[in-house]
Amino acid sequence: MAVDLAGEVLARAVFDGVGVMDFPVKHTLQLRRGMEAVNEDGDPVYMLGEPEPIAVAAWWLTGGEEPGTDGHMYRVDYDAAAFIPVGANTQPEDEIYLPGVGWFRVDGPVANWDHGPWGSVGLDKVTLSRGSHEDVA
User: Fold this and answer.
1) Strand ranges (DSSP E) for the chain?
2) Model pTM score
3) Is-contact 11 85, C-beta < 8 A?
4) If you average pLDDT over residues 23-34, what whole number do you get?
5) What 3-state class would DSSP assign to 65?
């Protein structure tokens, strides 16, 4: 079932306790959460949950690398990115559907800038890799 959250406030950024900026919902995408389950033989298996709506401020296709904390190791190559609300709790096992493009795996750590001394943005950046976990199963 499609849910349209367009126009609702997704995040409210507060800068140094003075300035306030709202980020409206621009798109409602589909999110499938990855989870562990047990098959009929009792072995642990990976599976995807049912799609659920997730509001985003923006998403875009790109090609790039996300450097690791050491600057060169643990780089993450990605094909798209999205700004989602803080607290959406996306994990690398999850997938997001980009309309007209397809399913993308959440890849790499979620970037959050709410720890700075000047304000709270209220959005996380997730990097996405083309393809579904089901494509490789």
Assistant:
1) 9-15, 19-24, 27-32, 34-38, 44-48, 52-56, 58-66, 76-85, 95-98, 102-106, 111-112, 119-120, 123-130
2) 0.74
3) yes
4) 86
5) strand
